[in-house]
Each structure stands twice: as structure tokens, then as C-alpha cells.
């Protein structure tokens, strides 16, 4: 809708990273020989990025859903190769319990740490390819940057 307050772009924060030379000069963890310990600063809000992607998709006609899980994949034989291909997913709204099918011309597995679970829905023999790890966030005072 044209009146949707979410379309305002003022809530988006751009990634910010200091210039390399300024960072090297000001960082207390840099040594005299200018070797650094791999400190990289930046801001990224993945929730806002995902919201922006969903709203853009909706603007171009996509149906979007939140709090939804894949129950099983929808498959059919490719008429040219005879090989079984994924063409969608049977989903459940975890709030209401309502189930529905989502069909697509192209299906992309962009599930992050759930990649292997979805790949195993396609074929139980698929080996794990994703090793999730825990992130570390360190907050330091501005004069250390």
C-alpha cells in the first residue's frame, strides 16, 4: 500500500567502517610495526535488512509470511530430465496452525543455520555442509577506535 509507514527509509542504517589508515593510526591494539590483530568495526542490523528485502518483494507482488515453518517440500518430476525437483514447500503458520502450500518457479535455500535441515527434507542422504558457530560482539569505548 502507498500509505505503509514501513516504506519510509529513515530506519535503515548503512554499514559503517572507518578508513583503514585512520583505524591503524588510532587503534591501541596496533603495534609499532603497524601489524594489526584483525579488529574490524562495523554496524549491520540483519532484522532491518530482512524487513527491507521482504517489503521490496511485496512491492513487486510477492506474498510474504512471518512465523512460518516448512513442514515438507513439494516435488515433482522434471518433464525434460525425469529427475524429481523441488517446486515449493508445504508450510505452517506457527501462530495460527494454518497450513498452506507455496509454489515457485525457482526455489532457493537461504535458511542460514537451518540449511542442512532443509536439504535433508529434500534427500535424507544429503551430507551436512553447514557448521553453525556462535558470534562474538565486543563493545569498546569510542576513544579505543
UniProtKB/TrEMBL annotation:
Organism superkingdom: Eukaryota
Name of the molecule in the record: Uncharacterized protein
Amino acid at each position: 500500500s502507498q500509505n505503509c509507514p514501513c516504506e519510509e527509509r529513515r530506519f535503515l542504517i548503512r554499514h559503517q567502517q572507518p578508513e583503514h589508515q585512520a583505524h591503524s593510526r588510532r587503534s591501541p591494539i596496533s603495534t609499532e610495526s603497524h601489524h594489526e590483530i584483525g579488529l574490524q568495526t562495523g554496524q549491520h542490523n540483519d532484522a532491518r535488512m530482512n524487513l527491507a528485502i521482504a517489503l521490496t518483494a511485496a512491492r513487486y507482488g510477492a506474498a510474504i509470511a512471518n512465523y512460518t515453518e516448512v513442514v515438507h517440500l513439494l516435488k515433482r518430476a522434471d518433464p525434460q530430465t525425469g529427475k524429481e525437483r523441488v517446486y515449493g514447500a508445504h508450510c505452517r503458520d506457527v501462530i495460527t496452525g494454518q497450513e498452506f502450500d507455496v509454489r515457485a518457479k525457482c526455489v532457493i535455500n537461504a535458511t542460514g543455520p537451518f540449511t542442512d535441515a532443509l536439504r535433508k527434507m529434500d534427500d535424507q542422504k544429503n551430507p551436512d555442509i553447514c557448521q553453525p558457530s556462535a558470534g562474538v560482539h565486543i563493545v569498546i569505548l569510542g576513544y579505543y577506535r
